[in-house]
Amino acid sequence: MSKRQLAMVMDLNKCIGCQTCTVACKVQWTNRNGRDYMYWNNVETAPGKGYPKNWQESGGGWEGSVLKDGKIPSLANDYGMPVQLNYEQALFAGTDPWLKATNDPAWTPNWDEDEGAGEFPNSYHFYLPRICNHCTNPACLAACPRGAIYKREEDGIVLVDQSRCRGYRHCVVACPYKKVYFNPLFNRSEKCIFCYPRVEQGIPPACAKQCVGRIRHVGFLDDEAGPVHKIVVKWKAALTLRPDFGTEPNAYYVPPLSSPKFDAEGKPTAEPRIPVAFLEKLFGPRVGEVLGLLEAERSKKARGEESELMDLLIAYRQEEMFKIR
Ligand code: SF4
Ligand code: SF4
Ligand code: F3S
């Protein structure tokens, strides 16, 4: 158990799927040395297969107090091979006038981006950014026979001790979110580190700081003055992803409100386009209650009344989104 827990809240009503967070993380941590295929932060389209492909059906997590079996995603089929482009020929040698793919992968990260589900004009999708959840009951940690994964006392960040890890990959099997990645070059596993070297200097994680949609709040769950405590504990307006996996995640989501469905004459109905059952599968049974709360607070704000929750989620000043000390 940690003394305190740092957590992130992501407001799915504001994510525009721009991948700035993904790039911020990749440039900082995973663009070389066996990490090229890894996305410690990824943003996938929901509904969709996600990254790695079908991670929600990949096993792992807890069944009561027992670890569930799972699988190690394959590089070519599940994580997906990157598209290689003819940069040299098109941009430097001038031997090809077009920038185009030189390989033909069958699957890449975000292969099904923006596809979503539903029939036009009632099709729907939203973006789901994902990091390691720095879980309170981390399956990755429990699965490692080397004791190489630990949870920091001071902030609950879950890390892989690179000097202890021997590349057994039980952690990859056990994480139901598939957020531990095997580095074949070093024969070690690696994962999102919640940017702890930045956090220790009072700087927010790169994915959160660079987020142009201002969807990511970072703070300690027990810090009553911080945005995370207010959204998660005081307002109870954020939920964890797949709570049924049993790992008690510390990444929280404000669930997405939905446009109304159109009827055959093109008139809006009272039915939401995103099925509540789909959201309940992702975020648990409280989702309808939270969506009701968001709608009520949004209406207040629209009438010109005060709403602390809406002010927090609008995030007028970026610096107020982070309280990590
Ligand atoms: Fe471990 Fe996965 Fe939880 Fe991260 S999300 S702490 S890798 S179980
Ligand atoms: Fe990447 Fe840091 Fe965000 Fe983790 S917290 S996903 S390491 S940018
Ligand atoms: Fe343990 Fe995972 Fe390394 S199981 S040894 S932390 S690859």
Task: Write the SSE topology.
Blueprint: E1 6-11, H1 20-30, E2 42-46, E3 62-63, E4 66-67, H2 75-80, H3 87-93, E5 126-130, H4 139-143, E6 149-151, E7 158-160, H5 170-174, E8 180-183, E9 188-191, H6 196-199, H7 206-209, E10 216-220, H8 227-234, E11 239-240, E12 251-254, E13 260-262, E14 268-272, H9 276-283, H10 287-302, H11 308-314, E15 322-323
Parallel strand pairs: 1-12, 10-15
Antiparallel strand pairs: 1-10, 2-5, 3-4, 6-7, 8-9, 11-12, 13-14
The protein binds iron/sulfur cluster (2 copies) and FE3-S4 cluster (F3S).
Write down the overall geometry. Answer: globular
Proportion in helices: 10-25%
Q: Would you report the number of β strands?
A: 15
Q: What is the H-and-E element order?
A: EHEEEHHEHEEHEEHHEHEEEEHHHE
Give the second-level CATH assignment, the architecture of the domain at 6-62 and 110-135 and 192-323: 2-Layer Sandwich
The biggest sheet amounts to: 5 strands, mixed
The stretches of 5 or more residues where confidence is low (pLDDT under 50) are none
Alpha-beta content class:
alpha+beta
The residue-averaged pLDDT reads 97
Ligand inventory = iron/sulfur cluster, FE3-S4 cluster
Characterize the structure shown.
This protein has 325 residues and is an alpha+beta fold. It has a domain at 6-62 and 110-135 and 192-323: Alpha-Beta Plaits, CATH 3.30.70.20. It has helices spanning 20-30, 75-80, 87-93, 139-143, 170-174, 196-199, 206-209, 227-234, 276-283, 287-302, 308-314, and strands at 6-11, 42-46, 62-63, 66-67, 126-130, 149-151, 158-160, 180-183, 188-191, 216-220, 239-240, 251-254, 260-262, 268-272, 322-323. The chain is globular, with a radius of gyration of 21 Å. 40% of the residues are buried. The mean pLDDT is 97. The structure holds iron/sulfur cluster (2 copies) and FE3-S4 cluster. One iron/sulfur cluster binds next to helix 4.
